[in-house]
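Propose amino acids for all 358 sites.
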């Protein structure tokens, strides 16, 4: 090794010049490596969230922005006031771009997904009431919309897709052994869903199985998260199907309510599970995402105990005992969840603040 005071025998130049040049090259190489790593991190942290203005998706967007992600959010119309809450999120002005897109419009989805390393497919039609033609109005949009998203992901070379399914795609299975805990190997029976008019369950089962088939046939990395009844504070200014369940509890009713087992999970815990499934390289397959199993009557009584001023339903009909569900697989990914009391309190307080309780 040359010393600074020596002369290089090949170039006859002072050794310190050679050493200086080597140091500069080494420093430049480190800078290039650092820039490449930063660029790769930026690329990995550019994701698309479908149905960005929804109950779950709004929290997904919020948490992604807080973690430094650049988010492409699909909404029906970015100018609509009902999506204004998204633009008010911290870091939204710099890191959130809303795209006008529809699940039935492949081209609009393709534009929103372009340049993203991952897609969190949260959007799904959930009818708030019965529809005249469920196969056309519920099933087809769910299945075809999911396939459009996945095809756009394949075309855009997306590295991973997180599909938000539901326990509705798990629990409607009369052939599952009674008293045996349901896990990710259990799928709802499609024919049973049809004959019992559970079209939402059928649509979620059909859409998730279609996504699984597409992933296997096309080599796309798709992970499914299957949450239960999602409660918790709202970011959007309107009610959705799951928040409406709790709001109905607070309004009271003379009608009898089926006292069935509810699989409850906080919306914030679902959002964290979705992001965890994207970030954890070992995540694969499907994950049941529930925190608490509780009968309808017990849920109402717990709510009334926290808020005695609320008028809760008191008439219940005993129903067939549901199987229990297990989130053990998700817990092994280091997922955690909030206490039920925290979820209920934060739900009611946010409904009141948004003027949703009347």
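Proposal:
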């Amino acid at each position: 090794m040359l010393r600074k005071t020596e002369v290089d025998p090949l170039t006859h130049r002072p050794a310190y010049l050679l050493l200086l040049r080597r140091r500069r090259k080494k420093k430049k190489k480190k800078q290039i490596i650092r820039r490449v790593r930063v660029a790769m991190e930026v690329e990995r942290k550019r994701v698309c969230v479908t149905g960005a203005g929804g109950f779950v998706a709004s929290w997904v967007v919020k948490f992604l922005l807080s973690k430094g992600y650049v988010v492409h959010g699909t909404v029906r119309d970015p100018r609509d006031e009902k999506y204004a809450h998204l633009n008010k999120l911290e870091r939204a002005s710099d890191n959130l771009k809303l795209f006008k897109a529809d699940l039935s419009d492949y081209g609009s989805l393709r534009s929103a997904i372009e340049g993203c390393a991952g897609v969190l497919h949260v959007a799904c039609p959930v009818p708030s009431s019965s529809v005249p033609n469920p196969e056309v109005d519920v099933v087809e949009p769910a299945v075809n919309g999911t396939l459009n998203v996945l095809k756009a992901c394949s075309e855009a070379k997306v590295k991973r897709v997180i599909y938000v399914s539901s326990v509705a795609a798990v629990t409607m299975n009369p052939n599952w052994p009674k008293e045996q805990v349901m896990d990710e190997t259990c799928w709802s029976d499609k024919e049973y869903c049809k004959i019992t008019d559970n079209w939402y369950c059928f649509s979620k089962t059909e859409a998730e199985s279609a996504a699984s088939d597409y992933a296997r046939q096309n080599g796309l990395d798709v992970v499914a998260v299957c949450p239960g009844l999602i409660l918790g504070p709202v970011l959007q200014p309107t009610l959705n199907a799951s928040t409406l369940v709790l709001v109905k509890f607070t309004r009271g009713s003379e009608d009898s309510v089926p006292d069935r087992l509810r699989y409850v999970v906080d919306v914030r815990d679902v959002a964290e599970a979705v992001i965890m499934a994207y970030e954890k390289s070992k995540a694969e397959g499907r994950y049941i995402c529930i925190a608490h199993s509780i009968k309808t009557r017990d849920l109402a009584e717990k709510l009334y105990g926290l808020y005695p001023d609320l008028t809760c339903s008191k008439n219940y009909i005993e129903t067939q005992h549901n199987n229990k569900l297990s989130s053990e697989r998700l817990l092994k990914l280091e997922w955690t969840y909030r206490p039920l009391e925290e979820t209920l309190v934060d739900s009611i307080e946010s409904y009141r603040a948004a003027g949703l309780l009347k």
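The first helix runs from residue 15 to 44. Confidence is low (pLDDT under 50) at residues 36-40.
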